[in-house]
Amino acid sequence: MTQILVTQKLITVREFLELKPDANHYELHNGVIVEMSQPKGKHEQVTGFLTVQIGTESARLKLPYFIPKTALVKSFQNDSCFSPDVLLVNTDNLNNEELWSDYSTLQFGESIPLVIEVVSTNWQDDYYMKLGEYETIKIIEYWIVDYAALGARKFIGNPKQPTVSIYSLVDGEYLVTQFRGDDRILSPTFPNLNLTANQIFNASL
User: Fold this and answer.
1) Taking a C-beta distance cutoff of 8 angstroms, is the pair 110, 51 a contact?
2) Which of 18, 77, 87, 113 is the most buried (most CB within 10 A)?
3) What are phi and psi of 89, to 5 degrees?
4) What ranges make up the beta strands (E) of 43-191?
5) CA separation for the pair 44, 113 (Å, rounded)
6) Which residues, at least 6 apart from 165, have a Cβ–Cβ distance to it below 8 Å?
7) Could you count the other beta carbons within 10 Å of the beta carbon of residue 103?
8) Distance CA 204, CA 194 (A)
9) Which residues have C-beta within 8 Å of that of residue 198, sequence separation ≥ 6?
10) Rounded CA gap, 65 and 3, in Å?
11) pLDDT tens sequence for the chain (205 residues)
């Protein structure tokens, strides 16, 4: 997903939340507002498929979770705010989120059981920046879904191939398990989720 620099003026997260136009898709990266371009069709298919599958499994288990449409995740360590492709929210912790009521923004890992980024042309953001940020926030589980094998070989192997990388928080650090082809996805949050990597890449059961 191509990023378009909107302004060079550095701003705080609070200023970003006050100024951000509701009709557009923006993120804040280290104080700089970035406009995200319209995703490609396949990206939207994969994102939509995962939203349905994760939402259905959460409902089946009667967990206090939901998936918002445009909620944001605030960085723990700098002036950054991210809009994940799929964001699972724990309603039981929303009373502790001071930015939730007015800005639908989360800042604590306890509020986010799972976050998913579907890789686009700006793959560096998912593998470098957001990986570190989500680990610092202590989000328990982070998926990087690289259906087009765009990431660097050090992340998805050589030769490159479509990969789902699931980062699980263990003793405050992410450990990664990767899935390809007909590998069954193993999710710490949803251990009975019956999905293969190919089903995710094809956005179809």
Assistant:
1) no
2) 87
3) -115, 135
4) 65-66, 72-74, 81-82, 86-90, 105-106, 114-118, 141-146, 163-170, 173-179
5) 22
6) 143, 144, 146, 155, 156, 176, 177, 178, 179
7) 19
8) 12
9) 181, 182
10) 30
11) 434 454 567 889 999 988 876 656 889 999 988 888 788 899 999 999 999 999 999 999 999 999 999 899 999 888 999 999 999 999 999 999 999 999 999 999 999 999 999 999 889 999 999 999 999 999 999 999 999 999 999 999 999 999 999 999 999 999 999 999 999 999 999 999 999 999 999 999 8
Q: 3-state class of 177 per DSSP?
A: strand
**106-140: buried (b, 16+ CB within 10 Å) or exposed (e) per residue?**
bbbbebbbbbbbbbbeebebbbebbbebbbebebb
Model confidence, pTM: 0.92
